[in-house]
Amino acid sequence: TDRPGLAKYRQECIRVAKEPDPVETTKFWNPVDLPGKSGFDLAHRILDSKVTARNQDFLLASSAEIGTFDVVFFLGVLYHMKNPLESLEK
């Protein structure tokens, strides 16, 4: 993600009183290069982890597609959700 570019874009939206577009629809979004995931990637590599990382809209995914889990870490996501309760129920 081009964080400086995104910050300038958001500042411009505030200046002209425009609601910013969702970041994933802008040119600043790059799902291949997620800088916030670098810690996970490092631990995954060092620990030779068998965990599978998924970058997707989990509200659209079915349990048949991704399976079920005893524990799910939902860190840094909940407050971004349009409907947080629906997200927790899923």
Characterization of this structure:
- It contains 4 helices and no strands.
- The chain is an all-alpha fold and 90 residues long.
- The protein folds into 2 domains: 1-51, no CATH class; 56-90, no CATH class.
- The longest helix has 13 residues, at 3-15.
- It is globular.
- The mean pLDDT is 82.
- This is Methyltransferase type 11.
- It comes from mine drainage metagenome.
- The chain crosses the membrane at residues 58-81.
Using brief descriptors, characterize the structure shown.
single chain; 90 residues; mainly alpha; 2 domains; 4 helices; 36% helix
Structural class: mainly alpha
Percent of residues in beta strands? Answer: under 5%
What is the residue-mean pLDDT, rounded to a whole number?
82
Low-confidence stretches: none
What's the alpha carbon Rg, rounded to whole Å?
16 Å
Transmembrane segments: 58-81
Organism: mine drainage metagenome
Protein name: Methyltransferase type 11
Keywords: Membrane, Transmembrane, Transmembrane helix
